[in-house]
Prior knowledge:
The protein is mainly alpha-helical. The chain is 76% helix and 1% strand. The protein has one domain (2-369): Orthogonal Bundle (Farnesyl Diphosphate Synthase), CATH 1.10.600.10. It contains 16 helices and two strands. InterPro entries: Isoprenoid_synthase_dom_sf (IPR008949), Polyprenyl_synt (IPR000092), Polyprenyl_synt_CS (IPR033749).
Amino acid sequence: MPERLRLVDLVNARLDAFLVDRSTHLATIADELDVFIDASRDLLRGGKRFRALFAYWGWHAVAGTVRPDDPLAEMDDHAELDAVIALAAALEIFHAAALVHDDIMDNSDTRRGMPSMHRRFQADHAHREWVGSAASYGTSSALMLGDLLLGWSDELLAEGLSIVADRSAARRARREFHVMRTEVTMGQYLDILEEVAWRDAPEEDLLPRAHRVVTYKSAKYSIEAPLALGGLMAGGTPDQVDALRAFGLPLGVAFQLRDDLLGVFGDPGVTGKPAGDDLREGKRTVLIALARRALPASAVRLIDELLGDPGLSEHQIATLQATIRDSGAVETVETMIARSVREATTAIEDAPLSRAARSELIGLADLVTRRAH
């Protein structure tokens, strides 16, 4: 839709301006630091801007009093439009930081069709024939890039919040950002914990534990928190923010369940990741938990023996994919996605939110759960 493209253009322009400003600062420290700006630009150039879109429409859901056919038209001069664009851009930088760290922990080679950041730095070390370990340099440099992006996301958020006239609303949004940051960090830990400690859990707990990872690693920070942040920044009432959360959390779960399916069955040419990447990384997802519940013991042993082996061959990947399909887990996950989307859309049908925002959020629900990458 045209307004989505216009919004994405505004966010991209804000990101570009922010990086130009930070590049000037880094240049005063050392010329060699331009590698961090180049890496940040390349990483931020990709992505679908979902978090930015949900932040804006969370804000519009509360603040929007514009024409439904062109939601941005009368906001071009809005005093707080710059604030929500800064918030949206801050969320994209935060997401980029999370991806850098996630790729290190998962030992991923690619991201968005490009080398992951630690592989990028590693390749630079090898190309220049520097001393020491290229792998160690790559990991260390990428860690610093992720930390830098985390700090920058906070700086950009602060710039946006400084514009908000309602200082109570600004403080509430700041608190929400802090909660989001803690939850996604702990969700990431729960994810890596499940990869190594799943044998310690009773069999009946594996599915709820996998769902817990979905909730805190992805669902809340991908959709619920951006919506709530936008609504809080606009001064939303408890009823309005609660409605945004009631829409955002189940949709966030559906979003991550789709991502889990793509991590096993996605087309590498579309996803930018190798086929079956989650299988090599040993992700103990809802999909895997459901498959294990439905399969005979011999097939469960096969999954447990192969899952998490970074050297899986194409044949072994295909075997695991077929085993998971045969379990019926894919159909179950698709049912869960559809049910979560219905729950989300029902939550805002009669909610005290702007008509334009409700319409756009329903469209976004379809977009984020039917995607191929």
